[in-house]
Design goal:
Blueprint (H helix, E strand, L loop, with lengths): L2 H13 L2 H8 L15 E2 L14 E3 L2 E3 L3 E3 L12 H11 L5 E2 L11 E5 L5 H13 L2 E7 L24 H10 L3 E4 L4 H9 L4 E4 L13 H12 L5 E3 L6 H9 L4 E4 L1 H32 L13 E2 L6
Parallel strand pairs: 4-11, 5-6, 6-7, 7-8, 8-9, 9-10, 10-11
Antiparallel strand pairs: 1-12, 2-3
Helix pairs in contact: 1-9, 3-9, 6-7, 8-9
Amino acid sequence: MHPLLAAQEARARELVDPAVLTWIDDGTDQPGAAGGWSSYRFRPHVLRDVSSVTTTATVLGTAVAAPVLVGPTAFHDRVHPDAERATAAGAAAAGSLMVWSMRASVPFEGTGWWQAYVLQDRAITLDACLRARDLGATAVVLTGDTPYLGTARRAPLGDLDQAPATLQDIDWLTTRTGLPVLVKGVLRRDDAEACLDAGAAGLVVSNHGGRQLGRTVSTAAALSEVVDAVAGRAPVLVDGAIRSGLDLLVALALGADAVLLGKPVLWGLASGGSAGVETCLRAVADDLAHVMGLAGCATVADVDASLVTAPNGWT
């Protein structure tokens, strides 16, 4: 883990209510919950001009300072009184993009993407997406791995009355909102292909931090398969225990267009409000620039699959 992120987490654990910490930590002890990024080894280039390294990228038409986005996490008011407003401000200051959770503590405002669950009352889902769109959201991230809450996620924090989402919901949300719809929770080739065929504008490789089905494959192990299935037809993002520029560099080498940070952003928010979030995102971006240079990559476009070697037994 990046030392600054570790320091923010340590400070956050001094400030946040223990019951909230327990809820945030749920799932992290599940086998497979960790990203698996450290299992890869690099094959760096030499004699490349890395006197100037840039991490700038474009994700679904949005320019960002680095391919590091704020993933959707719930109830930011449990860790800081300024809640998601501070998170969004910190993300904007860092040149990043925030994915607002449907379980946010405050209404969507500003720019970013909107994460949606399909609820038993589907009108609530649609109304929330339309409201976010009208306030500036530029994409919907449909969570596909939560037909109902896994036991690790049950907490006295206001659960939603969720219903199983289906492939048809991709077209439903795309048509009704006019926004591109990404599907979050994809870990398999066949699901990736089915989502794209159903109209998905992008995919997020995610195992929900081990908070849904336990013993789920790590996102690092699943990423290449999904990227191969997509074959450049849509952006592929990934989350799951990304804690440093090295982790991010592996994800990019495996074909991710960007990563989503979850817990580190909450630690940054808890320890320093919007400034803490900005510091967290900038630290990961700066760390990425540092290790890109060491790997002989001056731009994100220079990072490809030849840069990493898979662990034994992985494909």
